[in-house]
Amino acid sequence: MSGAPALETAALGKRYGSHWALEGCELSIPAGSVTALVGPNGAGKTTLLQLAVGLIEPTTGTIAVLGNEPRAVLPRVGFVAQDHPLPRRFTIDETLKLGRELNPSWDAALAERRVDELGLPRRQKIGTLSGGQQSQVALTLALAKRPELLLLDEPVAALDPLARREFLTGVLQAVTETGITVVLSSHIVADLERICDRLIILARGHTQLVGSIDDVLASHRLLTGPRAAADAVSRAHAVVRESHTERQTTLLVRANGHVYDARWELHEVDLEEIVLAYLGRTAPVDRPVAVAR
Amino acid sequence: MIWVGWRQQRVETLIAAAMLAVLAAASIPIGLHMASVYTHDGLAACAGHAESPADPCRALVPSFLQRFSGINMLFVWSTLVPALAALLFAAPFVLDLDSGTYRLFWTQSITRRRWVVTKLGLAVGGTVVVAACLIALATWTRAPLDHLNGRMSTNAYDAEGIVPIAYALFVLGVALAVGALWRRTVPALLVGFVVYIVGRAFADSWLRQRLLTPVKTTWLVSRPGPDLNRALQIAQYPSDASGRQLASSAATCVRSAGGAFSHATLCARPRPLGTHDYVTAVYQPASRFWELQGLEFALVAGLGVLLVLFAGWWTHRRIA
Predict the structure, then answer these.
(1) What is the model's pTM?
(2) Given B16, B31, B48, B259, which is the most exposed site by the fewest CB atoms within 10 A?
(3) Could you tell me which of B99, B124, B131, B94 has the C-alpha nearest to residue B20?
(4) CB distance B320–A98 less than 8 Å?
């Protein structure tokens, strides 16, 4: 692996007709990280991942994957598209053969071991499998390619909680065994906290927040205090969300250092609340933010 | 990729093979029987002459043709086999676009171009093979009929030579192109089928007669005329010596394309034409079979191949 980031974009944008699915996207995902790409439906998550595997071409800007043009590094990238499309008439064994035929770096032993460990019926047709089983086959196909970067587009959205857990366990296993870089898009935050160490929040085609989850948790605070003091806070810190009642004001801020003002009461916030606060913003208040380490 | 492409159209290939098998099972016994009658009755000697009333062929040939007329119907319908096979072979390509599995294939280690070329190549290959099988079957089975009647009637012309391959490629091209644009399997195949039926009707009834300027021959009724039995007749009418049609409508006999075994004199009624009357025929002579087939093939197959290439180009460049 070179020192290049696993994924790096500059002024990346994709327009469909007059609608910008992704705009001005600037981000860099370091090799070896497990990154959650969070945002509501239509936020641009799928667009970003499809750009990363060369399924679509950017309208503006550039995207580099493992330091290269996306299509040039496809053999080194594993991808599971939304709804994990697989040929329904193939059996699992045939699907594995498909992987071998189409990928020079195919690890047949790994593929077979995974399928057997999961107890998947190898002679059964894909079309007859459950959604969870299909997603496992799709993940197996992506992992047996021995990729350096694994891109998963909403892999667990359609799965029941048990299948979701099993799928993410599979991803986690691959991460611990091979140190693979993973980018995983989802709108279910709870799942991501368990396996991800970095977070990208996308909404309305723009990146809202980029950073490591630890830093994000450390830097965000919920403040409650008098409304009159809100202006002072917003001068020093980035206010993500504010709400007012008659008696007090509540601010969710990305703190720029400590909040010294004694009029404010400080609370910690969990990741889900932070994500929701960013997604609830009507417009990107300031430039896409990167949380400093 | 070849194994994957083949696996994806395996069911379609089996269905196409089954259709050919049914056709072979229906036509081979008839063909064998017809060939033995043909030899036994000495019909081989009858081809191209049945003029004198004493000639036994005058009775033999029509009764033979009457007896085996069913085979014409069989092969008219059998030209649907390559067209349906072409639609079947178009299906796996469109299905990948329709169901989204193309996103799986395009994110493996192979290039998009290789995927497109392999899939389309297999579809074209399968289509051509099925059409060639139909041609072989039709040509072998129909041999006695063709020997007597020539191959210019639509019954023979559409199932023999090389045009069946052209029409199969044309259907394939339409279905693939519509599928690439629309990315819906069933509508694409339906459009392909409808366009095929319309295209065939257009070619049979209009285009073929005009691909080459027809021959126009005028002759005295008392003299032997040209061999029209094996030609594609477009019109035939009593005329003056210069070939201008006579006004008498009762004597007019306009024959549609693809007339079976008959004679100019059979058409003129009620007054038998006198020895000083002329008859004019407009037709494509039998000798033009390959010339016409070649032209029609170039036109139709060319269009089909262009449509296949368009489907490939569009998919390669546009879809995501």
Answers:
(1) 0.87
(2) B48
(3) B131
(4) no
